[in-house]
Design brief:
Length: 329
């Protein structure tokens, strides 16, 4: 018998994800009813204050270790990242109940968006390793980035606080950010023994094949092969940026001439001319939507450890559609 199919579930439930408290109550009830029907023990740890998420995730991992349980992240990609960071290397299986706006991590692994269906995946206990990206002391399951993209994410979160969480709001925030002035970074990037000097408004490192497929990048296959996909944008005018945004929405961004593509297990990024900053250069880095300051140089790499992920054994239907040329969600 699969041991994970009998293990207790220790669930970190982000009450701020999805549609708020109403959705939290609904998901809580689904978990309680589903686990009771399956005869499975459930420890539900709701998080109502964002600054408590790390502490609750750490507590969940300790509880799962003590009871031989499964660590579960219920929330969006940011919540999944936080809980996964604490769970990585802990020896416990890791599960996801997707409650966010995009849910790239769960979708690329075929985990259903419906909470009841996602719970059945957890109860079935099918385990498969999931690749993890790392930059400094942070991990990323979907992507990490410098420059314009972290700024876009900060603006998007502000719009979401005012207008609510939706893909239309996210698109509008991105459009407004691209219309503003932005700084060009001067970087030196090293991969495979070769160093390149770059002038770029943003550097994006992907670890999610579904996202790369939907944007139209062939590097999605490299992620499936155990690599990361690094994308750097050459300096362009704002009108050209809007054209790139449209290409991304149509799943054709990979065809653009203004992008540098690198598939690599390791990318070292250094400051060229120290970015014009005094002292040790620092820069904003976004990892799975969470933005913070880090010091250069930075090393983006595939982490040596994988997540022991609970997921369906069948290929993800979204990935099949993307590979066949389906429209991005």
């Amino acid at each position: 018998m699969n041991p994970a199919a009998a293990s207790p579930l220790v669930v970190v439930l982000n009450a701020g994800a999805g549609a708020g408290q109403g959705r939290t109550d609904e998901v809580s009830q689904v978990l309680q009813d589903g686990c009771a029907a399956a005869g499975r023990r459930l420890e539900l740890l709701p998080v109502h204050e964002p600054h408590r998420l790390v502490a609750v995730a750490r507590d969940a991992v300790a509880r799962a270790r003590d009871c031989g349980g499964i660590v579960v992240a219920a929330g969006g990609d940011g919540t999944v990242n936080t809980v996964a960071r604490e769970a990585l290397g802990c020896g416990c299986p890791f599960g996801v109940l997707p409650l966010g706006t995009f849910n790239y991590f769960s979708r690329t692994h075929g985990i259903p968006a419906d909470p009841a269906a996602a719970l059945q995946v957890l109860l079935a206990g099918h385990r498969q390793p999931a690749q993890v990206g790392r930059v400094g002391d942070r991990i990323f399951l979907v992507n990490a980035s410098l420059g314009l993209y972290p700024k876009l994410l900060e603006d998007r979160e502000e719009w979401k606080r005012q207008l609510g969480r939706s893909r239309l709001v996210a698109f509008g925030a991105g459009l407004l950010t691209l219309l503003r002035d932005h700084r060009t970074l001067r970087l030196a990037v090293e991969s495979g023994g070769r160093e390149r000097e770059l002038r770029t408004p943003t550097l994006f490192v992907g670890n999610n094949a579904l996202q790369m497929e939907q944007l139209g990048f062939a590097e999605a296959r490299a992620i499936d092969a155990g690599l990361l996909a690094a994308i750097a944008l050459r300096p362009v005018e704002r009108l050209a940026l809007l054209g790139l945004l449209l290409r991304g929405a149509l799943g054709r961004l990979g065809e653009a001439d203004d992008l540098l593509h690198i598939a690599t297990p390791r990318l070292v990024v250094r400051a060229r001319r120290r970015l014009g900053l005094p002292g040790d250069p620092r820069i904003k880095v976004a990892t799975d939507g969470e933005v913070g300051w880090m010091r250069l140089p930075l090393t983006f790499e595939v982490a040596p450890q994988t997540l022991d992920l609970l997921r369906p054994p069948a290929p993800a239907p979204e990935r099949e559609a993307a590979a066949a040329g389906g429209a991005p969600a």
